[in-house]
Amino acid sequence: MLSQSQTLQEQFKIFYKEHKPKNFEDALEKFAIFGGVGWGEIDTSKPSFELIQKLILDDYSYIRNDVNDITTGAPLYHALLSAIAMGDGKTHSSYKRAKLDKDVGDKAVEELVERGIIYVEKPKKEFTSWAENEKLDNKLYFTTPFLRFWFAFVSPLFKGIRDGDYSEVKKRWQNREAEFCDLIFTQLSHELIKKSFQNEDAIKEISSYWDKKITLDIYATTQSGKRVVGSCKYTNSKVKKSELRRLQELCREAGINADIFVIVAKKGFSSELKSLKGKNLRLYTLKNFKELLE
Questions:
Q1: Is the pTM of this model over 0.90?
Q2: Which of 80-104 are b and which e, b meaning 16 or more Cβ less than 10 Å from the residue's Cβ?
Q3: CA separation (Å) from 201 to 186, 205, 277?
Q4: How many CB atoms lie within 10 A of CB 292?
Q5: Residue 124 DSSP class
Q6: Distance (Å, rounded) from C-alpha 19 to C-alpha 13?
Q7: Given CB 3.0 to 4.6 Å as the disulfide criterion, which of 21, 48, 79, 88 pairs with 27?
Q8: pLDDT digit string, tens, across residues 80-126
Q9: Torsion sign across C-alpha atoms 255, 260, 262, 268
Q10: Is 249 within 8 Å of 256 (Cβ atoms)?
Q11: Tens digits of per-residue pLDDT, 122-138?
């Protein structure tokens, strides 16, 4: 049973409670695959592909029927959803990948939003110096992690799966596993930042930021009007001071006057960067994700 009506934080909280992961790395990686669906208890310490095969691929026909009930099974929808799942989520590149004209794509997006499958994030243009008529793409996101996984790794490769051949899925997963968790890590980081600011200067709005030149993982404004800018680093190395310099440079380029910088890192930070931590630089690791469970 899918839970598109719940927020990502609610879905993560339920997932953690149901499956009792041993650590937040396991929790996040398995949530990126199975999040938003009731599965019974999952042993999150097992390798991801072993779980994918057992819980999803071996049960393909049954799950496909459930997914088709949500999407209507329309090939146009499935082409667009796979394009969103496999790409950067921007409307233009998603339509191009799905081979859809803009009018057809826009209509499909509207219908998929109504069905609770995806949501739209609009760009922030207040810091750019472009002409008024210059257009920026919206970004499209899935409401449920599992649906994103399905349309990235299962739906496009259904013929082999249907015939019991999982080799294509395995190869695609091995090639993209590392990057696949990035988005969920960033989205949950947004929830973490909202939570951590709520008792001092609550976050009014948070999203990613993109323009013609730059992209930022985190752009937020607080109730008092402060601007929060940050990055999410889902890598196996500690984040260094150079990441803060990079963020500062990107803000200069975009014309953003940031009051607070935040960095969320899977594996923590160098001593040099930690020494700069304070009111204007907040540092978070996976351990902080326990705040999302409260």
A1: yes
A2: bbbbbbbeebbbeebbebbebeeee
A3: 21, 12, 18
A4: 21
A5: P
A6: 10
A7: 21
A8: 999 999 999 999 999 999 999 999 999 999 999 999 999 999 988 66
A9: positive
A10: no
A11: 988 665 555 555 678 99
CATH code of the domain made up of 8-181: 1.10.10
* Mean of all residue pLDDT scores within the chain: 93
Show me where the domains of the chain are located. Answer: 8-181, 187-293
The number of C-alpha atoms within 13 Å of 265 and in the hemisphere containing its C-beta is 18
H/E run at residue 271: helix 271-274
Could you please state the CATH topology (level 3) that the domain comprising 187-293 is classified under. Trna Endonuclease; Chain: A, domain 1 (3.40.1350)
Q: 161 near 154, Cβ under 8 Å?
A: yes
Residue 239 makes CB contacts below 8 A (sequence gap 6+) with 233, 263, 265, 267, 268, 269, 270, 273
